[in-house]
Amino acid sequence: MSTPLLQARDLHVEFSSRGRRARAVDGVNLAVGEGEIVALVGESGCGKTTLARTLLGLERPTSGTVLYGGQPLTYTSKALKAYRREAQLVLQDPTGSLNPRHTVYEAVAEGPRIHGMANEEQVVAEALSRAGLRPPERFFLRYPHELSGGQRQRVVIAGALALNPRMLVADEPVASLDASVRGEILALLLKLREELGLSALVVTHDLGLAWNIADRVAVMYLGRIVESGPVEEVLKEPKHPYTQALLSVLPESPERVVLSGEPPDPTRIPGGCRFHARCQVLASGAAALAGVDSRCRSELLEVLPAVPEAQAACYYADTMAADEAVVR
Amino acid sequence: MNLLSLEDVSVTYTIASGEVPAVRDVSLTLDPGEALGIAGESGSGKSTLAMALLRLLPRDARVEGRIVLDGEDILAMKWGRLRAVRWAEASIVFQGAQHGLNPVRRIGEQIAEPLLVHGLAQPAQARTRVAELLEQVGLPAWRSRSYPHELSGGQRQRVMIAMALACSPRLIIADEPTTALDVMVQAQVLSLIKDLIASHGISLIMISHDLSVLADMCDRLAVMYAGRVVENGPSHEVFHAARHPYSGALAAAFPTVGDPVSRMAPKGLGGDPPDPMDLPSGCSFHPRCPVALDLCSSLDVELWPAGREGEGPHTAACVHVRPDLKAGADELGSPATETGADELASPDAETGGDDPAAPSPDSERGQGRGEVVAAASLETAARDERAKETS
C-alpha cells in the first residue's frame, strides 16, 4: 500500500477537566489516502472533533504521532503554517466562521494573503467558481448576510480551496444547512475530489452523509475507533453492536435498538470494552452464550490498526467471525 | 369532529421595508389522536404557523383566517381564555431546549409552574405530579432539584416534554424537538413522544425539516414551501411517492443507508429558497423545480387531489397532478371534467429531485407556451367543478 496522505498513529489527546484526566482521544489509528473520502462518525463528546483538530495540528497529541505524507508533523509555527496550506479545515456553521464585516472577496483572500500568494484576484475568482459561486465577480463585494446558508458554506469552502490544499477536514459540513442545500454541498465535495483529487476527512454524526459521499467510514465511541472499513461493508453489515444500534435508529430501519442513557464522559471511561455498560449484545445475554461476557467487562481491547479492510473492536464479533470461519 | 382546524390562515409580518407574507392561506385539519407533520426548510413559514396556533407571535405579525381548536376560534379569544388554553389544551415543545428553560430555577419548579398558575394543583399535589411527570419522561424524581445546566441536552428536552404534559393537554405542538440532539438521544426522545401521545391519546403537530423523521412519527404530512402548503397526504405516500417535486427533493435529501440509488449520489436542489418579499410569479417553486413547464412561471396551481385510490386524502399543488392544465391547448374550450384521483397518477409526475429522467418538458413546452390565459380560465372552470363536488 502506498503511504497514506494523512495518518494518525496511536494518537492520544488528553485534557484536564475539573482535576480529572479526560481522555478525549484514547488510542486512535486512522489513515486517509490520496483522493479518499473518509467519514468519521460518532456522537457528540466521542472525541471526533478533537481528533480532527489534532490531525490539523490545532491540538498537540499527548502521545502518538500525526503523519502527513509519511512525515511526522513538526509543531513549529513555520512548519504548521506550511502544513495548513496543504490541509484545510471547513467548519460546521458558516455563519459563525465568516466575519460578518468582511466581504466574500476578503474572506476568501485572507488565506492567500497570509501565504503571500501571487495573483490574488485570480486565485479568489478561481476558488469561488470551483466552490460553485459563479460568476465569481458577482460575489466579490457581497457580505455574508446577503447570502443564503448554502452560499455561505460555499464561501467557506472557497476559502479553503484558495490555498490549493490536498486535503479538507470538514467538521459537520452540512449539519446547519437546510435539507435541500445539503445534497448540493455534499455533491460539491465529491466533485472536488474528482476534479482536484482532493482527499477529505468528514467528521459527522450523520450516517446518511457517510453513505452519500464517503469511501470509508470510522465509527468512534468514547475516544476510540470501534469499527472501520469500506462504507458498503460497515453500513450494510455492521459488526460492532454500537454501529448496529446507530444504524437501527435511522428512520425506516426495521428493528430499533435504542440504547438507554448517554455515553459516559471521557474522564470515566469504563474498563473492559468501553461500550460494555450500554451494549445490547451483552445485555441480551448473547455475549454470555458465546462465552465472552467476562472479557467484555474486564479485558481491555486492542487498538484497531489503520487498515482499509472492515474491522471491529468487539470480542463478540470476533467470536462470531471465528465460528463462521470454522463452519466454512 | 376535528380537534383543530385551520382555515385560510395567513401570517404577515410588517417590517420597515414592507410586508412579509410568512404564511399564505394554509388550511389544515387535525383529528383527535392524530399526528400531523409539517415539513419545510427555514423560511418556509412552518415555525411561524406553529406559533400562530397559540397566538405566540410578536405584535408585528398579522394573523388572518380562522384557527379553531375544539370548537373555539383562537384568534377571537379573550386574553384570559387564551391563557387558559395555552398549556391546558395545547402546549408547545420548542427547539433548542437550553433556551426554553430558565437557567436559575430548579426544573421541578418550572414543571410545576403551569399547574400552579392554572390552579390545577396545590403546591403539595404539584410536587407529586412533578415526580410522576419526570418518571413518565424517563427521569428520576430527584432530578426535580436539578438546574438546567446540570442536565444533558436530551434530558433537558425530556424536561420540556414533561412541562408540555403537565396540564394534560389534548394537543402538543413540537417544533423541531430533536434538532440539536445526537442520533441516539434523538431516537430516545422521539420514541418517548410517540409512546406518550399514544398512551394519553394526545394529538401531535410536529415540525421539522427532516421528512424521514416526520414520516416515521406522523400519520399525515404537510409540506410547506414559501409559506404555503404544497402537499398534504398520508406520511408514507408523501415520503415515498411524493406528488410535488419539492416534497420529492426533501425526501431524497435524507438518504436511506443501504439504498444503492443514493450511494455516492447526494441529492440536492439547486437554487435557494425564495425571498418572501419577492416571491417568484406563478408557482413559487418553479425557478428551482426540476420538472417545471413554461406555464409554471405564470400559473399558480392550488392544492388538488393527487392521491391513489384506497389511500387517505392526498393533495398536491403542482401542475403535474393536473393533466387537464398541462394539456392546456388541446382541451381549450372543453373544461376539465375528470378529477379522479387514480387517473392523476400519471407516471411523468415522478418525485423529482435531480432526476433527469423526469418528464420530457420539450414536447409539453410547445403546448404550454402562450396558453396562460387559457390555462387560467381552465383553472377557474376546474375550481368550480371541484366546488360542486365538495358541496
TrEMBL record, chain A:
Keyword Nucleotide-binding belongs to the record: yes
Gene3D superfamilies: P-loop containing nucleotide triphosphate hydrolases
GO molecular function annotation: ATP binding; ATP hydrolysis activity
Keywords annotated in UniProt: ATP-binding, Nucleotide-binding, Transport
A single GO BP: transmembrane transport
Organism domain of life: Bacteria
Xref: SUPFAM superfamilies: P-loop containing nucleoside triphosphate hydrolases
Domain ABC transporter: 6-247
NCBIfam families the record matches: oligo_HPY
UniProt family annotation: Belongs to the ABC transporter superfamily.
Protein name, entry field: Peptide/nickel transport system ATP-binding protein
Species the sequence originates in: Nonomuraea dietziae
Automatic annotation (TrEMBL), chain B:
Subcellular location: Cell membrane
Single Gene Ontology MF annotation: ATP binding
Broad class of where this protein is predominantly found: membrane
Keywords per UniProt: ATP-binding, Cell membrane, Membrane, Nucleotide-binding, Transport
Protein's GO biological process: peptide transport
Residue ranges annotated for the ABC transporter domain, each copy included: 4-251
Gene Ontology CC annotations of this record: plasma membrane
Region (Disordered): 329-391
Biased composition (Basic and acidic residues): 381-391
SUPFAM superfamilies: P-loop containing nucleoside triphosphate hydrolases
Membrane association type: Peripheral membrane protein
PROSITE patterns reported for this sequence: ABC_TRANSPORTER_1 (PS00211), ABC_TRANSPORTER_2 (PS50893)
Annotated family: Belongs to the ABC transporter superfamily.
NCBIfam families in the record: oligo_HPY
Name under which the protein is recorded: Peptide/nickel transport system ATP-binding protein
Organism expressing this protein natively: Nonomuraea dietziae
Source organism phylogeny: Bacteria, Bacillati, Actinomycetota, Actinomycetes, Streptosporangiales
